[in-house]
Amino acid sequence: MLWLLLLTLPCLGGSTPGIPGLEKEGIVGGRPVSATNFPWQVSLRYKNTNNQWKHYCGGSLIHPQWVLTAAHCMVKRFRQQTTSLECLKWRERKATEIRVQVGRLRLYEPDEELSEVAQIFRHPKYNASLCWLSGSDIALLKLKAPVSGQRRIPVALPKGPLNIPAKTICSVTGWGDVMYEKPLQYPYHLQQVAVPIVGNEDCNRMYQNKTSRLRVRPNNIKDSMLCAGQEGKGSCLGDSGGPLVCSWNRTLVQVGVVSWTKGCGHPAFPGVYTRVTSFLSWIHQYIPELSGPLMGAR
Question: Which residues are CB-neighbours of 84 under 8 A, at least 6 positions away?
Answer without folding.
Answer: 2, 214, 215
